[in-house]
Design a protein that fits this description.
The structure is a homodimer. Helix content of chain A is 50%, strand content 13%. Chain A is of the alpha+beta class. The longest helix of chain A has 18 residues. At the A-B interface, helix 1, helix 2 and helix 4 of A face helix 1, helix 2 and helix 4 of B. The structure holds a DNA duplex.
DNA sequence: CACCATCGTCTACAATGTAGACGCTACAGG
DNA sequence: CCTGTAGCGTCTACATTGTAGACGATGGTG
């Protein structure tokens, strides 16, 4: 709604993972990136649902890529839009501002 | 459910804000910290609901503090538990790993 | 041709985010 | 004393986001 609507954590991860893949990423690559970084599994449902919602908000877009000899049907390549980039920056700024001054590892004494 | 359940973004902010306030924080201070850092308003409802859920997950705890001459009734002081600290660290690690290598400001050309 | 694998869609439900109405206690003014 | 005002926390209700798994389509393989 508002221009600075916040991103959910998983939305952030998806956006970031696309960016890391070079901004013309294949689904499998993106999914893998998230799983590696966050060390957890990402179901297809969770992944595509989030992508759809991000698209409806104008933060990602995609294009079909002909499989050209590959297996299966339509392959997509995903990109983050300027709107998505802006949202990412806003989220990061907010969290970083809170993180600054907090030394999480200093508290590590049970 | 799983030991490394992820925190929502707002939950993260609340936890971090308590920590920043010195781990024995008053509600008003915490709320203010978030509003300042994230540059948005935080309603009482949103705030306390999140605190309750965090408590149910064992990530924050609180104690009453006598107002001793102050106004109003029971005042609470909030602290983040070791469980909360661990969750914070996990979230941070995941996001940071995704952020690394992505230069958000380099993409800033419309 | 039957069968398997991969990619994306859809449905459904759980968890989180958020607002605002309520109720209580204390203090200020009349 | 009674009433108004204000701060703190509770509760209800609903919107948004997170997540899984069933389903369907397409192309390759034996």
């Amino acid at each position: 709604m508002s221009p600075n609507a916040f991103l959910g954590e998983f939305e952030q991860m998806v956006l970031l993972a696309i960016l890391k893949q070079g901004d013309r990423a294949f689904a499998l690559e993106v999914r893998r990136e998230i799983e590696d970084s966050a060390d957890r599994s990402v179901s297809r449902g969770a992944f595509y649902t989030t992508l759809d919602r991000l698209e409806r908000k104008g933060m990602v877009e995609w294009s079909e890529a002909e499989p050209s000899g590959r297996r299966s049907g339509p392959l997509r390549r995903f990109s983050v839009t300027p709107v998505g980039l802006a949202a990412l920056r806003a989220s990061r700024r907010a969290l970083e501002s809170l993180w600054s001054g907090v030394d999480l590892f200093a508290e590590e004494r049970p």
